[in-house]
Design a protein that fits this description.
By secondary structure, the protein is of the alpha+beta class. It is elongated, with a radius of gyration of 13 Å. The protein has one helix at about 45-65, and strands at about 1-5, 20-25, 30-35. About 35% of the residues lie in helices and about 30% in strands. A 3-stranded antiparallel β-sheet has the order 1-2-3, with helices on one face. It has one domain (about 1-65). Strand 2 and strand 3 form a beta hairpin. The chain has 1 helix and 3 strands. The chain starts with a strand and ends with a helix.
Length: about 70
Amino acid sequence: MVYSDSDWAGSVDDIKNTSGYAFTLHSDMFSWNSKKQEVVAQSFSEKEYIASGDTTNQALWLRKNLCDF
């Protein structure tokens, strides 16, 4: 299961969004991250696309490395 989310201009200093994701297998979380987005999103949809892109990149990386075992 994968969870992904972002906030809207959560940093009052530079109005950048924070996005994060969490990957679980059964009930165990095995990969997670939370970070400030590098760009200032101009819309609600844009910030979600950025968060989804980060999550997809991590999913592809996990898939590649887990398939090597």
